Amino acid sequence: MASGESGERSAGGTPRVDLTDESVHWNVSRAETYGGYLDLDRLLNAQHPRSIEHDEMLFIVVHQASELWLKLCLHELKAAISAIRRDDLDPCFKMLSRVSHIQTQLLNVWDVLATMTPFEYSSFRNQLGPSSGFQSWQYRLLEFMLGNKHAEFVRVHRDDPEHMALLEQALGAPSLYDEALRLLSRRGFEIPSEYLDRDFSQPYVPSKQVTAAWLIVYHSTQAHWDLYELAEKLIDVDHNFQLWRFSHMKTVERIIGYKRGTGGTGGVSYLAKALELRFFPELWSLRTSI
């Protein structure tokens, strides 16, 4: 008889299962429990609506969940960048694939938020004050690690010295794409020297020589298979980021129309402009040449 089965049968002949397993020891400390390990008390008590409106809880949970996914993205990207520096691409592929799957979860949260109507959002919007997703230091750190470098974005966090220091460090460090280009150079591809040792705090400017190097990879995939796979993993991340930006813009348009965003941003107009951004521009432009 299987452990946990009483041996009795119901009227229909289905075995009755005793869900009490005497082999389980329940006398454990709080820190050893499921809730203790995940620190659920703190996590599930971190939602503090400022109004009595039912839908404010939705707004809070969606954004808190997004920040948790962003935290995992940053964890994976940091490790992926280190792997590229070591020329150890196999674990990097796994990490970038995981980032792409996380991005799918971030995309899905907009569908949940979009269940909120304009009237429901307006009922508590004033409670947000000047707060805005534009102020998310994790989101900004993610963009810096992917290569969208703009020093003015750091100044938004001048009242938060700890996170401002993290952003300044990432601003001046090579991005994921910078490290990919350094890898190409180490493999013998002709990457301009000014792209290998530059002021990494400055926005990236596309290069025809970089495009030419990637074209060699794409035209000789068997000889450069791991670099080809790296390029396609980067495209996956960039593509998903574009989808995320578009869904963000359409959700905002659906809920507040063309009002200005909280925190003083232009709302839809600001988000629409961000759709023009490409983290890895040569990997997109070369497609026209193949």
Summarize the structure.
This protein is 58% helix and 3% strand.
Topology of this protein?
Elements: E1 5-9, E2 15-17, H1 34-38, H2 40-44, H3 56-85, H4 89-113, H5 118-122, H6 137-146, H7 161-172, H8 176-186, H9 193-196, H10 208-219, H11 225-256, H12 268-274, H13 281-289
Antiparallel strand pairs: 1-2
Any overview of this molecule?
- It is built from 13 helices and two strands, in the order ββααααααααααααα.
- With 290 residues, the protein is mainly alpha-helical.
- The chain folds into two domains: 46 residues, no CATH class; 205 residues, Methane Monooxygenase Hydroxylase, Chain G, domain 1, CATH 1.20.58.
- A two-stranded antiparallel sheet has the order 1-2.
- The N and C termini lie far apart (64 Å).
Task: List the main descriptive attributes of the protein structure presented here.
single chain; 290 residues; mainly alpha; Methane Monooxygenase Hydroxylase, Chain G, domain 1; 2 domains; two-stranded antiparallel sheet; 13 helices; globular; disordered N terminus
CATH first level of the largest domain: which class?
Answer: Mainly Alpha
Q: Give the number of domains.
A: 2
- Fraction of residues in β-strands: under 5%
Q: From N to C, what is the helix and strand string?
A: EEHHHHHHHHHHHHH
What would CATH call the architecture of the largest domain? Answer: Up-down Bundle
Q: Could you describe the largest sheet, including whether it forms a barrel?
A: 2 strands, antiparallel
**How many beta-strand elements?**
2
Cα distance spanning the termini? 64 Å
Categorize the overall geometry: globular
- The helix count comes to 13
Rounded to an integer, what's the Rg over CA atoms? 24 Å
Within the largest sheet, what's the order of strands?
A: 1-2
Low-pLDDT stretches: 1-7
**Quick check: average pLDDT?**
91
Query: What percentage of residues falls in helices of 4 or more residues?
Result: 55-70%
Provide the CATH topology of the largest domain. Answer: Methane Monooxygenase Hydroxylase, Chain G, domain 1
- Structural class by secondary-structure content: mainly alpha
